[in-house]
């Protein structure tokens, strides 16, 4: 499962979302301005900063969760390849 934490005004988020869609990577987008729990998660991961995009990859069966801050599409693909999660 791939989750991208985002805001509506984030250009980097829009670009990564489009790139993941073109690469057929299934994902859910969560607006941290509308979801306080998501904002808390992002700030916890990023040393108190609400840095987006933050991408969370959670393997369905076992394996370690992967969290990437402001990743490139290449980094997302590499993380997915290593996680066992399919797009």
From TrEMBL:
**Where do the Glutaredoxin domain residues begin and end?**
2-57
Q: Name one Pfam family in it.
A: Glutaredoxin
Signal peptide, first to last residue: none
Q: Which domain of life is it from?
A: Bacteria
Q: What is this protein called?
A: NrdH-redoxin
